[in-house]
Amino acid sequence: MKDExxxxxGARPGENRQNAGRLLEIFAVxxxxxxxxxxxxxxxxxxxxxxxxxxxxxxxxxSYAELVALCQFLPGPASSQVGMGIGMMRGGIGGALLAWxxxxxxxxxxxxxxxxxxxxxxxxxxxxxxGLKIAAVAIVAQAVLGMGRTLAPDRVRAGLAVLAxxxxxxxxxxxxxxxxxxxxxxxxxxxxxxTGGEGAPSLPVPIGRKFAxxxxxxxxxxxxxxxxxxxxxxxxxxxxxxxxxxxxxxVFGGGHVVLPLLEREVVPTGFVSASDFLAGYGAAQAVPxxxxxxxxxxxxxxxxxxxxxxxxxxxxxxxxLLIAGTLPFWGALNRSPRIRGALTGVNAAVVGILLAALYxxxxxxxxxxxxxxxxxxxxFVLLAFWKLPAWAVAAAGAVGGWLLxxx
Length: 407
Fold this sequence. Notes:
- InterPro entries: Chr_Tranpt_l_chain (IPR014047), Chromate_transpt (IPR003370).
- The chain has one domain (23-195, 207-404).
- It is 77% helix and 0% strand.
- It has 17 helices and no strands.
- Helix 3 crosses helix 5.
- The longest helix has 44 residues, at 78-121.
- The protein is globular, with a radius of gyration of 21 Å.
- The model is unreliable at 1-9 and 196-200 (pLDDT under 50).
């Protein structure tokens, strides 16, 4: 006998229950990954491949590789976007949202709890928190080194990276990163815009191109209108949403690159102190899931639970709009040499932006003595050469900072 809701919706018998079961499965699988995926975006992609491709066969190897390529092309948190894309390919928009929620929620809860812990017990100046800041030095340095080898491997791109770092350090405004990224895209088109690889066929996505175009239009509308509304209307929550949305919309090259963008939004304004900023960044290395949940910590540290929810929604919204807006068009985008050239220039520039962040605020706020430098060097060796995961290095940094207090 048909369910009454099936009759009203026109669905075949059991179809709604089947869809609900599929959505529940998407959430359960992504939540398991959110609880166990340590090690950063590259490790996340390995976990995703093992779970979604090899174990469950939700998509084949080629489709997974194409999806990863698209998410590397887009700004935002690549691993989160891959998860959203897989959820979207299997369960539509609802599947994308549940895949994101399952993968991200454990990290959100842990980062908000850490922010409240720091405030409740006033441990911001304790040795183990200082050790987390020193761990951030090693982690960002390793990210600069690894990204430089991949994204700026030759003289031209290395020069673009260093030039970007110099501009960001010498011109410290809220628009400097945006200007550098735009200039790097133009340089990339001029230098590399005549070459491009073969395009990939479109990925199977159960959403229409009209909806996708609407998502892209909303992405750009929010990017340009939110600053205007912020200046006209005002309000702390709108300012918070604008700042974190812009950070999520302009991050190329991985989660670590969000560090300077967020620092410019929250530290100079006094929303979060430089000390608390780096303590949270260090703690973010020790939890599973995406590094972008650092925004949850910042929102909680400066604005309580409401601030945490606003910051989290704002920083992940661009990623959702972009993956939903570009997935149906990826085949055509992937064949454009000019777009590939622009991305080449942007990727080199983000290495420079992260290099600048390694000095200010990471190094300047964490390394104050020869003992601090020694601990940072030791943690870097553990991370870059002993290949310890980032969460283990963060934990070692906390212990090391505590021990330094006895010297």
